[in-house]
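Backbone-to-sequence.
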């Protein structure tokens, strides 16, 4: 009884069985203050019949359980945002706007350490709170979580403190707030209708998660199954007219070796489930525009594809920033691998013949735009950091830029909407944008505000929004549904955007083109390091073909497939968004190293020599489907026990051959012969093998008897002198 009275006097009761709650008041406050809120679900567009529904997740990242709490969702139905700054300040909690119209409340039980709970609040369409909303557009919405405390009549039998009696908000607990938006459409309202603003939503279809298939690479090195014969794929884009060059060994490096068979043979299978989920959205959302990496579509899907990007999403902006064409060619990626002609040749039959270059990690500088135009792209998409100028209202993101190769059209996305569609918050301080649902709510509110900025200019504006390459189909589906429900937006296609009046042309457009690629130092190092490793693998293949293989005519088709595989790995490694660049580069190195690794020396047993001369057999194995000719070198670490230096041997396909080295011994002892392989140019390759040689010299020929006779003669002369010498006087 005394303990109970003491706890009541302190205004707090410890729930039965909850030991973590027995802490000091300041510890409880800390646990409450670090409670995190996020929006799991919400109604992005409110109509006269939809009502408003929101699900809120409350997590407890602390070491102790929290007190029970109360969530309140309220908004201001009469407030109108007056500027972009105003709406952003609300999102980051930097402005105080009264929000007194309560949509609903929910009690929250005590949350255990490192756990979370969800609560759902529903406001029906005919509720007084929603009836108060008579103007369409975005409204400030506030989610508040505050700890509660028990009243004096609290029952001591409750385990979570939330049942059995009333609880009230704890005035000493600091509330946690989350700032978001409720956006009302014009449906069911008598407000004057304004023209909807055009918006183009683009979904890229890329496979950025592929890795090198080690088993397939190893099989390709040792087998030639005859597919992919002498004919080059039309995927290449042709010969020397597209910038192809010779790599110094008579081998074209324009990427024309790439074949569909090789694409699938050295890469892990596509994530077909994720791709199929996105492809299914095309039929569900008829106005969703798609731009596909042609290598990601293994076959004709039958779905509408509106445009194709450069194969593998090759990073043109990094290519221009590195500004070393030769390094890319030596790495196995010439312009023929990623130009517009290659993109169209590799595209499925159901796709539109519209090549559009996708932006890489860098910015579209003048040099990058000129490079894209030279490679046949009349249009590029700028998904980030193109026009940094600030304008009074949003505008169509179409720019016609003059380059040395002709005019090119830049389709630049609207920054805030584009960031949200890529899963990024507009600011790290925007507490309501930590979840997809919260970002979708902000997207809808922001687009409504843009239309309201200049409502009667909407018909002359067309905003571009691009989804991120790694965004899930579920997120894209939800956001597209929200856009389709937004009465102030009109979805358009890529052709409408291209045909729209350019916002800037000529010299005025040149003034806003970024002067620097802003390719980060980390990305620059990653690309240059990959280029060096890829060039080594390509050089290994060329060297093996010219200096080890013997029948160049018969093996030409096989070597082309090997090079095609290397080019495929290199092209994907130099993509604009590879998640597994190390795997792809290592796969290319494995391919180049495997060429020489397929010719090896079979380990030889130790040799014991019992005479001045002997023979040392060495067996060389060839695991490749074509014959090779190599030099075999032997060098010992002893001056008394030596072998012959070199010998040449031709090893048939998938076979082995034996060579012998002469051993000459001057004395008994031990030596190690280091045996290595050399190509026809005298350069070593592969792993060396060591053979132990032990000499036990025996007298087994005339030379030995002569030595013994001479030794006996010397002994007799010595004895004769010993008996006939004159002694000294003191002896």
């Amino acid at each position: 009884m005394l303990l109970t009275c003491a706890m009541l006097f302190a205004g707090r009761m410890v729930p039965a069985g909850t030991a973590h709650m027995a802490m000091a008041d300041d510890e409880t406050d800390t646990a409450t203050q670090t409670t995190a809120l996020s929006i799991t679900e919400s109604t992005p567009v409110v109509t006269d019949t939809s009502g408003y529904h929101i699900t809120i997740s409350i997590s407890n990242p602390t070491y102790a359980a929290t007190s029970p709490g109360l969530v309140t969702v309220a908004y201001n139905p009469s407030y109108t945002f007056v500027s972009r700054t105003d709406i952003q300040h609300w999102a980051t909690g930097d402005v105080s706007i009264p929000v007194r119209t309560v949509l609903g409340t929910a009690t929250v039980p005590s949350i255990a350490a490192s756990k979370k709970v969800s609560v759902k609040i529903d406001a029906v369409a005919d509720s007084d709170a929603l009836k108060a909303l008579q103007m369409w557009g975005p409204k400030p919405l506030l989610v508040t979580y505050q700890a509660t405390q028990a009243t004096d009549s609290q029952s001591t039998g409750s385990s979570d403190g939330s049942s059995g009696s009333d609880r009230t908000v704890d005035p000493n607990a600091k509330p946690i707030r989350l700032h978001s938006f409720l956006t009302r459409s014009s449906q069911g309202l008598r407000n004057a209708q304004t023209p909807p603003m055009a918006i183009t939503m683009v979904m890229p279809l890329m496979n950025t998660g592929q890795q090198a298939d080690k088993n397939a690479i190893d099989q390709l090195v040792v087998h030639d199954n005859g597919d992919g014969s002498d004919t080059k794929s039309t995927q290449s884009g042709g010969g020397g007219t597209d910038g192809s060059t010779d790599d110094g060994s008579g081998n074209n490096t324009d990427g024309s070796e790439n074949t569909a068979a090789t694409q699938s043979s050295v890469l892990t299978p596509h994530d077909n489930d994720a791709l199929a989920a996105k492809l299914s959205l095309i039929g569900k959302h008829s106005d969703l525009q798609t731009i596909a990496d042609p290598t990601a579509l293994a076959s004709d899907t039958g779905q509408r594809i509106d445009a194709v990007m450069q194969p593998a999403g090759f990073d043109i902006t990094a290519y221009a920033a590195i500004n070393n064409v030769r390094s890319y060619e030596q790495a196995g990626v010439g312009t023929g691998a990623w130009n517009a002609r290659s993109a169209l040749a590799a595209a499925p039959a159901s796709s539109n013949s519209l090549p559009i270059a996708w932006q890489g990690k860098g910015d579209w500088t003048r040099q990058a735009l000129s490079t894209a135009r030279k490679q046949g792209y009349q249009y590029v998409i700028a998904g980030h950091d193109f026009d940094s100028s600030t304008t009074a209202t949003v505008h169509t993101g179409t720019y016609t830029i003059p380059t040395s190769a002709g005019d090119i059209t830049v389709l630049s996305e609207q920054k805030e909407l584009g960031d949200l569609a890529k899963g990024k918050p507009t600011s790290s301080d925007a507490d309501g944008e930590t979840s997809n649902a919260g970002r979708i709510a902000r997207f809808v509110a922001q687009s409504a505000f843009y239309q309201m900025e200049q409502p009667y200019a909407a018909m002359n504006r067309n905003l571009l929004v691009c989804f991120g390459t790694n965004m899930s189909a579920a997120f894209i589906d939800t956001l597209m549904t929200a856009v389709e429900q937004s009465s102030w937006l009109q979805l358009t296609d890529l052709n409408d955007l291209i045909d729209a009046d350019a916002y800037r042309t000529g010299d005025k457009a040149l003034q806003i083109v970024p002067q620097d690629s802003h390719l980060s130092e980390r990305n620059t190092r990653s690309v240059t390091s990959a280029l060096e490793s890829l060039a080594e693998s390509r050089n290994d293949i060329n060297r093996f073909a010219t200096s080890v293989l013997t029948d160049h005519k018969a093996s030409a088709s096989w070597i082309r497939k090997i090079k095609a595989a290397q080019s495929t790995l290199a092209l994907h490694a130099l993509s604009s968004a590879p998640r597994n660049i190390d795997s792809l580069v290592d796969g290319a190195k494995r391919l180049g190293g495997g060429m020489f690794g397929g010719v090896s020396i079979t380990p030889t047993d130790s040799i014991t020599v019992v005479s001045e001369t002997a023979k040392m057999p060495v067996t060389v194995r060839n695991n490749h489907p074509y014959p090779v000719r190599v030099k075999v070198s032997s060098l010992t670490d002893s001056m008394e026990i030596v072998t012959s230096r070199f010998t040449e041997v031709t090893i048939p396909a998938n076979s082995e051959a034996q060579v012998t080295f002469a051993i000459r011994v001057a004395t008994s002892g031990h030596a190690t012969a280091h045996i290595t392989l050399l190509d026809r140019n005298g350069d070593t390759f592969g792993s060396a093998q060591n053979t132990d040689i032990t000499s036990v010299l025996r007298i087994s020929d005339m030379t030995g008897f002569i030595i013994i006779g001479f030794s006996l003669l010397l002994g007799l002369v010595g004895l004769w002198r010993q008996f006939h010498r004159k002694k000294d006087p003191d002896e």
